[in-house]
# Entry
Amino acid sequence: MLTVGRIAAQTGLSPKAVRLYEANGLIDPPERTAAGYRTYTDKAVPVLGFIRQAQALGLSLKEIKDILDLQRRGEQPCALVTDLLDQHLADIDRRIADLEALRTTLRHARAQADRATERGESAMVCHIIESTTAGA
# Structure
């Protein structure tokens, strides 16, 4: 039997993370000693490793729970994992496009500010912001 501290050290997680995963139903509730300490079996170690790897791929705890629930019911969760990863990739692509658009806007604002300064234009506060139009 492993205490929360030992299983955390063995999996590279914090005891707080292990308790959080338990509270969210990602791992089975451990047995308790007479003093109330949690004691885990060796079966929890690979599950915790899986959770850690899934989080490294950007999956949320809810998504990870859904994957684990399918597996616990004897179903193969790989199709769900593929769908989730595709969704995350699409989100990343959208964020990259948004950041590229922001970079273009900022470069445009910076160039306008340089031209305004060269012309000696004054502004109420700062012509860099005042002359920038959203989506420019």
About this structure: Residues 5 and 94 are 40 Å apart (CA to CA).
